[in-house]
């Protein structure tokens, strides 16, 4: 599902214009991005949580040349799926006959 697909789905299900649905989706995503940029944790019960994981600086290698390069420390957003979502997905997979 793409962002455009999500906007169209919300528009249809909520009975609102596509422009209003796009505003809703953008507001949610922008708010989540701002929270992660501030270092906040985002928890959506029944769905999952987003946190920033911090990685220390290290020395790596350019795979093409073998040259040693310094990689700066960084933060990366990480999503941890919620228990309910994981169970729902597995129930759905079992109903369709695949595991």
What does this structure look like?
The chain folds into 2 domains: 1-40; 45-99, HU Protein, Chain A (Irregular), CATH 4.10.520. It contains 3 helices and 5 strands, in the order H-H-E-E-E-E-E-H. It has helices at residues 3-14, 18-37, 83-95, and strands at residues 42-44, 48-55, 58-61, 68-71, 74-81. The relative contact order is 0.11.
Number of domains: 2
Order of helix and strand elements from N to C terminus: HHEEEEEH
- Gyration radius, in Å: 19 Å
Assign the CATH architecture of the largest domain: Irregular
Q: Are there runs of 5+ residues with pLDDT below 50, and where?
A: none
**Strand share of the residues?**
25-35%
Query: Can you tell me the CATH class of the largest domain?
Result: Few Secondary Structures
Question: How many β-strand runs?
Answer: 5
Short description:
By secondary structure, the protein is an alpha+beta fold. It has helices at 3-14, 18-37, 83-95; strands at residues 42-44, 48-55, 58-61, 68-71, 74-81.
